Amino acid sequence: MGAERCALFPGTFDPFTHGHLDLTRRAARLFDRVVVAVAHNPGKGAMFPLEERVEMIRLVTRSLRRVEVIDFSDLVVHCAKRVGA
Asked: Could you tell me if 37 and 83 are in contact, meaning their C-beta atoms sit under 8 angstroms apart?
């Protein structure tokens, strides 16, 4: 069997919208694993704290077996390498 197909969906998600959720659901049907990576960007002045955004996304994606939610504060390319995307 081939290697796992992992998709990375990075963003600040402040907030995580119905559109974001729709894209996550679609990706979960196409990939073995979908990692929603919530960016920590203090320069953006987020409406919700990072931990709250991560928890909100985990809550709305809990029924999606192939989806995991993480946070990151480095470059997207480094995050992609870490998760195997």
From this structure: yes
